[in-house]
């Protein structure tokens, strides 16, 4: 099955421009490091005495920084170009990781969260836009699917690293803290490969920055109206997800006593499954359309989300989580491609920023709340809350965008649909 999926990966990349492919694969190094960092924070830190509230705070700060900086970075991306901002953001990952390797102090971890949040903001406001700028409608969904597959698979591989730690600790006679921090140093240096490769690939890339005009200003207002509807609905998903998704390893530790030796590989299997399942995203979109495909996959995922609230053991919970994650994230490249297709090209950086902010603001707040809920021993409640918000968002998304396709004139059509729904 894996060999067949990897063969399908090659078919996804057909028609994707060579430079775009290179950009996508250059992020593999950072994705490996981020995968390890996720398990370090949510799986390992509870083992060394950090409360779920502290972990929720750390993740919340990481999410809040892009909220505060996203719009300025988005405007800068659209008006001055995306290359420099993307390069600076990718370079900021390494020092952020290095802080985790040097200390176990929450204060320093929060400083790292700010730095990593700035890097994330730079990426969020440039990455989707720079891919969309170099692709046409036919190749765009393929490019976003390939990007999603590479990111999630390599993030999964990074999450799997702690599975080897017990063997290394026993063989090398090292304690757990030393092994965890030494690997953080390794990933800190490894992540530097990404900005080097990005610089090489973008060195000869000339960006075209469109000046503003009265006609474009009118079109941009229509784009903004559609964007706010899209982002507002997407924000409901972010709000629901925040209660539990970033805290799943913490939930496994508190609910079933599962350490990062096992929750890390669980995230790895989940991410790899997510990545491989997303190979079918573009094919699904061609068969049923983007909106219908998004609704189908996210709707089925919500059913599995609800079932997690009642899982009696870690094995069943892990299986349900993997299926839920695969279904939910099949829609991710479709939504990225869809949004970039209904927004004016010269507004894509700002659109990415606004969409991210509206998703992350409630997500950051509810992650903190989710940590407190888990700390109170209410292990089913976060899943129930998430299910409610997911179901509401999916229904609204279908009602507003069911007749909107990312083609020429889409923004005007979408504005009319939004107005009719409001009426």
Structure classification: mainly alpha
Count structural domains: 1
How far apart the termini lie comes to: 49 Å
CATH superfamily: MFS general substrate transporter like domains
Query: What is the name of the CATH architecture?
Result: Up-down Bundle
Coarse morphology: globular
Strand content: under 5%
> How much helicity do the residues have?
over 70%
Question: How would you characterize this protein structure?
Answer:
The longest helix has 29 residues, at 52-80. The protein has a single domain (2-203, 214-422), classed as MFS general substrate transporter like domains (Growth Hormone, Chain: A, Up-down Bundle). Helix 3 packs across helix 9, helix 3 runs antiparallel to helix 11 (176-190) and helix 9 (137-160) packs antiparallel against helix 15. The chain starts with a helix and ends with a helix. It has 423 residues and is mostly helical. The model is unreliable at 1-8 and 408-423 (pLDDT under 50). It has helices spanning 2-12, 18-26, 28-44, 52-80, 83-91, 93-102, 106-124, 127-133, 137-160, 165-172, 176-190, 193-202, 214-242, 248-256, 260-277, 281-288, 290-308, 314-342, 348-375, 381-401, 410-422. It is globular, with a radius of gyration of 21 Å. It is 81% helix and 0% strand. It is built from 21 helices and no strands.
Annotate the secondary structure layout:
Layout: H1 2-12, H2 18-26, H3 28-44, H4 52-80, H5 83-91, H6 93-102, H7 106-124, H8 127-133, H9 137-160, H10 165-172, H11 176-190, H12 193-202, H13 214-242, H14 248-256, H15 260-277, H16 281-288, H17 290-308, H18 314-342, H19 348-375, H20 381-401, H21 410-422
Helix pairs in contact: 2-9, 2-12, 3-9, 3-11, 3-15, 4-7, 4-19, 5-7, 5-12, 6-7, 6-11, 9-15, 9-18, 13-19, 13-20, 13-21, 15-18, 16-17, 17-18, 17-20
